[in-house]
Design brief:
The complex is a heterodimer of chains A (about 160) and B (about 950).
Chain A: H1 10-21, H2 28-39, H3 47-54, H4 58-67, E1 79-84, H5 87-91, H6 94-105, E2 118-123, E3 135-137, E4 140-142, H7 147-158
Helix pairs in contact in A: 1-2, 3-4, 6-7
Chain B: E1 19-24, E2 27-32, H1 37-43, E3 69-70, E4 89-91, H2 95-110, H3 126-133, E5 152-153, E6 156-157, E7 171-173, H4 183-192, E8 197-200, E9 207-210, H5 226-230, E10 236-238, H6 239-244, E11 249-254, E12 263-269, E13 272-278, H7 291-295, E14 310-311, E15 320-321, H8 324-342, E16 347-351, H9 357-371, E17 376-378, H10 385-394, E18 412-416, H11 420-423, H12 425-436, E19 440-444, E20 453-454, E21 457-458, E22 461-463, H13 470-483, H14 489-495, H15 498-509, H16 515-522, H17 526-538, E23 542-546, H18 548-551, H19 556-569, E24 579-582, H20 589-594, E25 601-602, E26 606-607, H21 611-621, H22 633-642, E27 647-651, H23 655-658, H24 662-670, E28 674-679, E29 691-694, E30 703-706, E31 711-715, H25 727-737, H26 747-757, H27 766-772, E32 774-776, E33 820-825, E34 850-853, H28 855-860, E35 868-873, E36 877-884, E37 892-896, E38 924-930, H29 936-948
Parallel strand pairs in B: 1-4, 16-17, 16-27, 18-19, 18-23, 19-22, 23-24, 27-28, 28-29, 33-37, 34-36
Antiparallel strand pairs in B: 1-2, 3-4, 5-6, 7-10, 8-9, 11-12, 12-13, 14-15, 14-29, 20-21, 25-26, 30-31, 31-32, 33-38, 34-37, 35-36, 35-38
Helix pairs in contact in B: 8-25, 9-25, 9-26, 10-19, 13-17, 13-19, 16-17, 22-24
The chains are: A alpha+beta (about 160), B alpha/beta (about 950).
Amino acid sequence: MNMRVSAGDPAERSLQIIRDLKHLEGPMLPILHAIQAEFGYVPDEVKPIIANELNLSRAEVHGVVTFYHDFRDHPAGRHVLKLCRAEACQSMGGDRIAERVKQLLGIDFHETTRDGAVTLEPVFCLGLCACAPAAMLDDEVYGRVDEHCLSEIVVEARR
Amino acid sequence: MSLIQEIDYGTPASQSEAQVTLTIDGREITVPEGTSIMRASMEAGIKVPKLCATDMVDAFGSCRLCLVEIEGRNGTPSSCTTPVTPGMIVHTQTGRLKDIRKGVMELYISDHPLDCLTCAANGDCELQDMAGAVGLRDVRYGYEGDNHVKARNNGEVNAKWMPKDESNPYFTYDPSKCIVCSRCVRACEEVQGTFALTIEGRGFGSRVSPGMHEHFLDSECVSCGACVQACPTATLTEKSVIEIGQPEHSAVTTCAYCGVGCSFKAEMRGEELVRMVPYKDGQANRGHSCVKGRFAYGYATHKDRILNPMIREKITDPWREVTWEEAFAHVASEFRRIQYQYGRDSIGGITSSRCTNEETFLVQKLIRAGFGNNNVDTCARVCHSPTGYGLGQAFGTSAGTQNFDSVEQSDVVIVIGANPTDGHPVFGSRLKKRLRQGAKLIVIDPRRIDLVKTPHVEASYHLPLQPGTNVAVLTSLAHVIVTEGLFDEKFIRERCDWSEFEDWAAFVSEEQHSPEAAETYTGVPAELVRGAARLYATGGNGAIYYGLGVTEHSQGSTTVMAIANLAMVTGNIGRPGVGVNPLRGQNNVQGSCDMGSFPHELPGYRHISDDATRETFEKLWGVTLNNEPGLRIPNMLDAAVEGTFKGIYIQGEDILQSDPDTKHVSAGLAAMECVVVHDLFLNETANYAHVFLPGSTFLEKDGTFTNAERRINRVRKVMSPKNGYADWEVTQKLAQAMGLAWNYTHPSEIMDEIAATTPSFALVSYDYLEKMGSVQWPCNEKFPEGSPIMHVNGFVRGKGKFIRTEYVPTDEKTGPRFPLLLTTGRILSQYNVGAQTRRTENVAWHAEDRLEIHPHDAEQRGIKEGDWIKLASRSGDTTLRALITDRVAPGVVYTTFHHPDTQANVITTDFSDWATNCPEYKVTAVQVSPSNGPTEWQEDYEELSRRSRRIAGKLEAAE
């Protein structure tokens, strides 16, 4: 997913990204997405740069970034595994699967495995209620997951 | 006396003319269209429970407590966000609403500490009030589980809990008490316009965050106090309230800092000031404040304040404390001796723009009637004397034309030589609010001031001119307006002298005044000047606001006239939203000028040579007045050096620090035989004084201040003078000692004398001010309610006068030895020479003066950020530390003058305005070089200060 490490000075690179997108109507979210795509997270030091370019305060940018769980304040592992925690998935055994995955990875939600391979996140919800329980590895969704399916995914991801 | 409680209507007033009638709880009420149900209810006397609404900010609808039921509508809409409609029938209290409210309160309280008894907001907490109002008796959810209240949950660290932020010197932020109503965030955005606060996170994780989860002090916060005022709980609380407790009585008074003249409630417990809270009905500030007026009053009780009169024979002696009687007798006999020995004109005095109108009036009366000469001047000499002269010439009155409310109707605003967000912060906030609504801004300033680009505000044009070229830039703006036919011919033909206009138009149309020709010496690209001129002339209501960057130049008066020309040629005079508005530096500059502080003018700007005016005063005072103007401050100093001027009474001005060419000032003072300083502190001038009379603060006296919009505001005494006497009493007792039969028992009697002698104040009295809140002069038979806007149907002088404004470069020029231009200014947290603000916690923001220098100039000289540098001019040199920034252009350096150890005025020259002698502070040719430490002058001066502050029998005060 978003684990590309950007080359060059981050301040300069983010300035470039911001200037490419600031003409859009409501440019903040597209800029934040692009920044996250570039750096894998939204670095704190980029917020004042965005603020300055969009003529906002750095508090405002901080407010927007922290409102969305998907904007990270530090880099994730090479892969991000999201388990849906919403009602339908919970009723279809999502809790048990979550516990199992935590065991397999040896981490809790919001943590990254020590080898840096996988970050585990809860999500509400993936909109796959008909195929509950659901999961998502990077940009790919998986329906009706069971323990077996997930351990395969995990093995694949840690490779 | 009781605590003044202002009604909180919950949402701002609607400005609509159309009226709507509705029924709330069986009561019929008529309100302007657009009013919220909440506000309409409050106007009908019905308090709908609320938490996130307050009338200083727009409705938000987040707390879900103010719900109401409306007949014929589904659901329970929030009354703060629902506007009234005709015939609407509203119920504010039903079984359903009661249940909802109680449920909402239960949720709030389940994540709030239950320490009401020991909480600083006890007695002033809206959450507590609402719990009472909705009848909360039980919290079914308990206090276990996720919360923001406890540092530890069952022994484990609670990651949601945040410690108190005590970084701001004046208030604390306790996140554990926060109900996330967003009132602080909205106050910071809507009222102050700084946008320093946000809500971080979402849902239960939401918390108020200064900056990016920073401490308040490190964030963008400017400490205006609006958030503290808006907070309904103890989350944001003044430290003084935490320390002292809740106030029990209050009085409305006027801030003694800048010329905005904000109204405050001084909230007291006994004679102890608990806090200053901006007064919503204050017509200058409309309920807003800045860090100085709101918090920086600690100087009033600072240990440095001198409380006993002191005398010494020579300035090298230590001070000797004496009784008031001894002091008055000594001054009276010294002044009489000097006059006997050196002549009647050998003494004089200086009135203060910091004191009240009444006190200023008395000082000039003492000089004219008691000293028998006209050697009276005031600190306005060094700031706005060109305003008085220039506007007097052009329009016929020496004052700004508008009230501050006028900015709400401006479409294009020119700010020239002023930095409102630092110097006049409350006006700055009001201006920014208008700019966020879409008004356009033109900034003419050598420095990129905050207004040029600050969150949600950006100037359409910034003309970064070379210091000293104001006249050239303004004339080239006029060139564009005239040659492109953008002038308002109808206005000019009706209101101004047409032949004078024609003469002026021919002058400005000359090719040498075109932006292209001027560009070579102003440094402003011609296209910017043309764009700005077109915008101002055609953009709707155009208003000009200016400050000392206009007046403190050798062509200060010419610049003021050029501004007046621009306003007249575009027809921007005489209605709301337009005008020419000087931003006065000090609380009572306007008043001290009005009160006859200048050597050539009696109160009300009437020339001393005018027989009829003199007769009015002669009759009342029983003396004969000299019909020749007396000496101005610089002339007094010159005369002192020459040996013909020997004694001076200085009330509340530190001329040594604030007047130009410090060495010349000190030589003048040192040559005098009796220098009497009347001040709160042993200021720098007192180093050369023989008598020190302790002064009183604005909290310790009754009186009036007149702000920049000519508004006469009451100052009310809330504590006894610590020094024993209010300043007007001191002047009176000095006059009595000199044999004058004065017998005022209250400042209101002085105001009555002013009203009786001064036509523009004819109807002003304390009773009338009590009734009206405040009035703007002229206030007389013709304008019984005062004059918010002047020159409405024609200029006071008759026809508006266009005056040619030939640009004459200052004699202060850069050269190989002094290649940079120094200009000076103010910073938000400090005030003028800093005598007051340096004695408050405001030093947390600005502990020293710094020299702003462009990276290019710094690099050339091998100067790095924070390095000590030597700043030298033809007059002298000083040292301070460098601040490298591109806010200043290459070739220009900038500093503030708040700290005496910097003594920026050692550097400034004695060039001054051709008409009024206002010193040219804003342009000095300098050189900057790396340095190791203080210059010889700084070391000598520090030694002198130390020696001259010794008081016999007291340990040397550690400065």
